[in-house]
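Morning. Coffee machine broken again, so started the prediction first thing and wrote up yesterday's gels while waiting. Chain of 228 residues, entered below exactly as on the submission form.
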Amino acid sequence: MMFYDCHAHQVGTQAGGLMIAIENSKVGDMPVYSNLALRQADLGEHFCKVEYVTHAFQKTTTRIVKYHPRFEGYSAQQVLRDIAIRRPVAVVIDTLNAPFWTSYDYWKIAHANPDIQFLFSHAGGYDIQKFLEMCHFTKNIWLDFSYIQNFYGVIGDRPKYKMFEDAMEYALVADFKGRILFGSDYPEYPQERNVAWYEEHNAAQLMNENFERFRALIENHREKKALM
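Came back before lunch.
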């Protein structure tokens, strides 16, 4: 089945999605996109390029950026200030940063920027229930279950933590199911095996439709900013 991957660091078999750069990092033996490589890559119209913001808060060229507090050590307040200066149309933030950030830190950033779409990747890890709550009540918050769906055994062979399976299954039928995006964390985890789980739960087409809507929101925001 054709699918969009909204949390990938390299091209696999996806038809599009978010291609997220990571600076100075490799996943296994496969290099992932750096910001420079991503700028130079010809990925096609169905991909959205996402440059990575380092702790130096360097300039970026894409309208979607990724913050990784766990790798870069910046605070929620620093990210909030940087977003105010950078003014992207969408932001991806890694959420596996407990105990240094709380779920409230993420909500505060999204709440302060209602015109920006926020994808909270990995759905908060152990705080997943809090992130489902935020997604329900804050209309510019989106979630993906990349990494946690494999690490906590919902998909694959690791020991299963039932809370994560229950949370994922609930999110796919909840009122906010339209703001759940499929992500695999490829190449760290295989795309096809993860896609198969969503197909088994009759949610693969929903994931594609959600990305198309996410991309439309970004394009509409770009057009509005161009007219200002």
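The chain has a mean pLDDT of 94. Going to sketch it on the whiteboard this afternoon.
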